[in-house]
Amino acid sequence: MTKYVLSLDGGGVRGLASANFLRKLEFEMHKPLLEKFDLVCGSSTGGILAIALSVLKLNGSRLVNIYSSRNLKKIFSTSMPRVIGPKYGGRRKNNVLREYFGSLTLAEAETPAIAVSYDLKNRSTRLFKTFVDKDLEAWKVASATSAAPTFFPAIKINDNWYIDGAISSNNPVLIAYAEAKKLWPEENIKILSIGTGYDDKPYKGKKTKNWGIFSWLRGGIIQVLMESNSEHLIAESLFKDNYLRINSKLDSVDSEIDNSSDHNLEECLKMGDQWWDQFGFETLDFLITN
C-alpha cells in the first residue's frame, strides 16, 4: 500500500504560493487534502502550514487566508527601527498564531504532522511531531519553526529555545521520507514536495569576495541558505518516480521573505497559479498512481 507524504519548504510570505497551489489541488481532487496525505512535514512557513493543516484541519482556501494582507502586515511590522536584535519583536506574530490556534495542542492533529525547528541548547535539528509531542501548544510550535534569525526572536518551549527550521533544513523532503519510513517501514512512500520559489539572480564574485558579516546579512545570506538545492537533488536521485517537486524561479516575486506589500502578495498568488498550470495535471496523476 502506498503512503502519500506532503513536504513544504520555508520561505516567509512566499508560502502563499504553496498554499494557493494546495487550494487548487484540493479543488481538483474533490476531496480534503488530509484525506489524501498520510503525513505532512514542513519547515518555517511550511511548518506553519503543516500544523494548520493537521491541527486545525484547514481546507485550501483557509490556508491561503493565513497569508492575508491583514495577518502579514501584523506579523511583519515594528513600532520602531531595531538596530540591535531581530528586525521584528515577535509579539505580533505570536498574537496572530494564537488567534488561529488558541489553546489547542498537537494532540488535536487529525493527520500526523512534523514541524522542523532548530534546538539552540542541543545545537541540533528538532522535529516537533504531532504523534509524539502531544502536550505542546500548537501556536508555540508554529512560532518556533518560523523564528527566522535576524527577523524574529527565538521561542522558548519548556526548557529549550528554538529558532527557524530553515537553519538546518529549509526543504524537509529527506526528513519527511525518513520519518515516513519509521511510521510505515514496509510501505511504498510517495512524496509531493512544494517549494516557495528561488532567486536565480547571480552574485558577482568581485563584489562579494571581500564581504564581511554585515555585508552578507544585508546581501541576503538567509535567503542563500534557504535556497540550497541539495535536498532536491538527493531526493530526485533516490526516490525517482516516487518524488515530485513543485517549484520555480521567482520572476516577479520579491526574494525578501518579509515583503508583505499588496503587490508582492498578488505576485505570490500568481506564482501559485503558474505552478498549477505547469504541474497541476502531473500532480493529480502522481497522487492517483500507486
What does this entry look like structurally?
Strands 1, 2, 3, 4, 5, 6, 7 and 8 form an 8-stranded mixed β-sheet that branches. With 290 residues, the protein is α/β, with parallel strands linked by helices. 44% of the residues are buried. The protein is globular and about 55 Å long. Helix 1 runs antiparallel to helix 3 (60-66) and helix 2 (45-56) runs antiparallel to helix 6. The protein has 13 helices and 8 strands.
| Count of strand segments | 8
State the low-pLDDT regions, or none. none
Beta-strand portion reads: 15-25%
Euclidean distance between termini CA atoms = 8 Å
Report the structural category: alpha/beta
Rg result: 18 Å
Number of helices: 13
**Overall form:** globular
* Element pattern in H and E: EHEHHHHEEHEEHHEHHHHEH
Instruction: Report the sheet with the most strands, covering strand number, pairing sense and barrel closure.
Output: 8 strands, mixed
Helix content: 40-55%
Mean pLDDT: 91
